[in-house]
Write a structure and sequence with these properties.
Layout: H1 36-56, H2 63-88, H3 99-126, H4 145-177
Helix pairs in contact: 1-2, 1-4, 2-3, 3-4
Length: 178
């Protein structure tokens, strides 16, 4: 017989005991900006900002292609800022996640998407000499000369941003596998 007020059920287990501690090899706070990974993430944000400003400053001749470029550029820019803030403000030490694996997966996926966005931006740029309407008597080009120059710059910065994401992927893989 159980004493009065006692339960036959065991107490619930402590849920905190089942979560592994976070695995972080990057420093928190401003120290992250002194590492190669932090510097490359900063470059990703900087070059990504330039890409979407350049793409947004042109008349969009092919909305499907350049819409995807804008989506990838703005989404990657926002997520990179969030990722950097997680380490800047020390949340990486409080959230029980394997941050090395998360870093690799995030930067690897973003590299693939950004390289695709670079290819689409370069394809849009290469079509500048085609007429806007094929059955028209006027010869208005898809991109005017000024927009063509902006589109070239956007392609170059999209490539540079994709290279930065590729470098971050390589650094993250190295940290994750060590």
């Amino acid at each position: 017989m159980l004493p009065r007020g006692a339960s036959s059920m065991p107490p619930p287990p402590n849920p905190a005991a089942y979560f592994p501690p976070p695995r972080v090899t990057l420093p928190s706070g401003l120290e992250i900006l002194r590492t190669y990974s932090g510097a490359v993430i900063f470059l990703e944000i900087l070059f990504g900002t330039i890409v979407w400003i350049l793409v947004a400053s042109t008349r969009v001749p092919l909305p499907l292609l350049q819409g995807w470029v804008m989506f990838v550029a703005v989404t990657a820019w926002f997520l990179s800022i969030v990722f950097l803030c997680v380490f800047l403000f020390g949340y990486a030490n409080r959230i029980a996640v394997n941050w090395n694996q998360t870093d690799f997966l995030f930067h690897g996926a973003t590299f693939v998407f950004y390289f695709g966005a670079f290819l689409l931006q370069a394809a849009t740029t290469s079509l500048h000499h085609f007429p806007r309407k094929f059955n028209s008597t006027t010869q208005e080009k898809i991109l005017a000369d000024h927009e063509y120059n902006i589109s070239i710059a956007a392609s170059i910065f999209a490539f540079a941003t994709a290279v930065c994401y590729g470098c971050s992927t390589a650094l993250a893989l190295r940290r994750w596998r060590l």
